[in-house]
């Protein structure tokens, strides 16, 4: 349990350090609202990184990348305009701005939870198909060679040594 707490604290320190670097870079050139837009847009990814306790953090990486891909058009729109900070402020107040990054992160969570189930379904279907194929092959062998080749499960197998 102590190790888990240390990892959470380390993750928080890393996130705070990265956010501090981004904040320093953006606020040094006067882009306060762009920084707020980035932080608010990446909240689902940041929170998923904090709460994901599995080794490798693949779920949080998936959610974060989907979240980032949903936020990229808003960041690009802010930097393409003549006044990025004013455009970022306008984007912050528009509710449709939040639909893409949060919707994409929800899709990322959907992938995290749904795709393993879909993969399991395919494995089960493949196993059932293989079982059916082997049973058909067994029936063909029995038809060709007769019931004499079918061993009894109660009798032990004879080896060359016995």
How does this structure look, described?
There is one protein chain. 78% of the residues lie in helices and 0% in strands. With 162 residues, the protein is mainly alpha-helical. It is elongated and about 90 Å long. The chain has six helices and no strands. The protein starts with a helix and ends in a 17-residue tail after the last helix. It has one domain.
Nearest-integer average pLDDT: 84
Percentage of residues in strands? under 5%
Contiguous helical run count:
6
End-to-end CA span: 56 Å
Task: Summarize the SSE layout with pairings.
Blueprint: H1 2-28, H2 32-41, H3 43-51, H4 58-80, H5 84-93, H6 99-145
Helix pairs in contact: 1-2, 1-3, 2-4, 2-5, 3-4, 4-5, 4-6
């Amino acid at each position: 349990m102590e190790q888990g707490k240390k990892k959470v604290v380390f993750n928080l320190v890393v996130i705070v350090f990265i956010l501090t670097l981004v904040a320093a870079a953006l606020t040094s050139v006067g882009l306060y609202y762009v920084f707020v837009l980035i932080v608010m847009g990446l909240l689902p990814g940041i929170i998923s990184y904090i709460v994901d306790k599995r080794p490798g953090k693949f779920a949080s990486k998936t959610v974060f990348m989907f979240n980032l891909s949903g936020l990229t058009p808003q960041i690009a729109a802010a930097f393409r305009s003549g006044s990025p900070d004013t455009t970022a402020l306008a984007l912050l107040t528009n509710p449709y701005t939040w639909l893409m990054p949060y919707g994409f992160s929800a899709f990322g969570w959907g992938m995290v939870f749904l795709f393993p189930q879909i993969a399991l379904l395919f494995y089960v279907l493949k196993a059932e198909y293989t079982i059916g194929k082997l049973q058909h092959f067994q029936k063909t062998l029995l038809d060709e060679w007769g019931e004499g080749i079918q061993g009894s499960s109660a009798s032990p197998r004879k080896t060359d040594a016995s």
